[in-house]
Protein 1
Amino acid sequence: MLAILAAALAASSSTPILEPAVPWWERVTVTFDDKGTQQSCMYQFSLIPGAAATCNEEMASSIKPRAAQPQSGVFSKLTFERRFSPGGKLDSGKLQPGDKLLGQQVLFMTIDAEGSIGSCKVLATSGDLIPAYDCDALKTEQFRALASASTDRPREAFMTIMVYGHQEQIA
């Protein structure tokens, strides 16, 4: 499930060439009813504010509920998110109140002047649902080329990939 979603996130047609100089996030949030049936799937990208969209059919069908037993009268939300942090400052990984971290992976990367990934290293993983998005997947991404590459030194950045959940009682 997570490998398919990671590929869908990375290949999303609504994602433009990625920005290497500013922080951004991208997320897919899926809601399941108390019977485990998918009720919604939303895609959001922080560099296109207000442009939340319904997931395409391929992405939506790739996401299944967790193996846990559904609870009567409870809706479950599962969110897959990646946060890009340029420079030496790592994203805090902070979640909204009520969200529970299920899995996380932190990648360190360098981006060359042409916008390609020069190097990548997994720095940390945690949780029971480790995201399948890894350095191989990251290397397929294209970042915007630097307009004035005054130095041959690559840019450094972090990518934090998280899976988290939230449950709400049906009224």
Protein 2
Amino acid sequence: MSQKLLNLCEQFDFPKNYGRRNVHDDLYCHSLVFGLVKRPYFGYTESVANTQHKELYEELRKYIWEHRPEFKYTTITLNYNLECLPHRDKNNKGLSLITGFGGYTGGEFIIEGEKYDINGKWIEFNGHLREHWTSPFSGAPLIGLIVDLPNYFSGNSEILSWFGSIACKLV
């Protein structure tokens, strides 16, 4: 993890997200989606976070590229201090990647009962088929990074072409 990305995440004022009720019990969580998203009435579009938080978005993409350059994705979800409930990702297709960072303890990523330490480590999983969640954590913030290709982008040549164009910019 680059010090620059860690600093950007630690200093970032994560927005309240009221739309992820399937992963937590609270009214909102602190979560932000970068890349491509599907908006009601608008269809496929780039997330406003791409331009509003351009430096953070660029650093996230560099980090993914440095560690998993072969992984094709359209969406990056950045969670802050989010202890996820057991759930499946209804909109994802195929494999996702997850990693965590921060000075927290605990916070294991659990896939159907099997625990994984994701702090500074990448785990590949199919969140659409397999139930997953995070265990309780304490200490410094847990920052989770999830990279995936949602169902609605799979097989869409225009979207995958867009992915190719952003991937080329990183080289």
